[in-house]
Amino acid sequence: MQNMTRYLFALFLMYGLWMGLASVAGAAVILNEVLADPMQDWDGDGELSFKGDEWIEVLNIGLVDIDLSSYYLRDVFGTDPHLQLSGMLAPGQTAVFYGSQSMAWQRANGYSDYGFALNNNGETVELLRELGEPGALEFELVDAVTLQAHETEDDRSSGWAIDGSGWTLFDGLNEYGGTQEPGPSGCVPTPGEPNTCEPDLPVAHESLGSLKSLYR
């Protein structure tokens, strides 16, 4: 309950910060968490894929349900979108999208199936909203985040801290010992869930070596 209270407070804080980006009163979608270098089967299809298991999570910090079909994801290089989002997103809820979904959408729409193509030495991710008639592929930039190289190493994600304190490194599966910001939190990535973490509790995780051995 305490975590949920902090989470709701953070949502309203971020809502105030990001409301200027929304053209519809009470509606706002932002990037919430990104994992660029998977070392396990994050999308649950039974196999590790460095393209398919990358994921990007969005969050509705608005006050109304949002139809995600007018939103797209893209990296900073090139002009083509990497994925058209789908589904309804309720206030305070997250939705996670995997590289495997991106590849399937790209194939279905005549694009090369690169997936999200997130670089492991740093990356910029963009959240776009379509303008005008559906299919016109004219966009406005809704949100963007630039990840540093240490944020895109094996099974590390980065995202908004649940207490609203800023962008945080979730390094519970691959501990970070450096000094760059964002610094280590010991939290594990949380695709599709609030970005919760209890730093006083031990984090159970397998070593990277044991994870890699599963897919050799």
Query: Which regions are unreliable across 5 or more consecutive residues at pLDDT < 50?
Result: 1-26, 200-216
> What summary fits the major beta sheet?
5 strands, antiparallel
Task: State the separation between the terminal residues, measured CA to CA.
Answer: 41 Å
Rg estimate, integer Å: 17 Å
Structural class: alpha+beta
Proportion of residues in helical segments: 10-25%
Shape: globular
Taking all residues together, what is the mean pLDDT? 82
Number-wise, the strands total 11
| Side-by-side strand order of the widest sheet | 7-2-1-10-11
Determine the number of helices (DSSP H or I, runs of at least 4 residues).
3
* Percent of sequence in beta strands: 25-35%
Element string (H = helix, E = strand) = HEEEEEEEHEEEEH
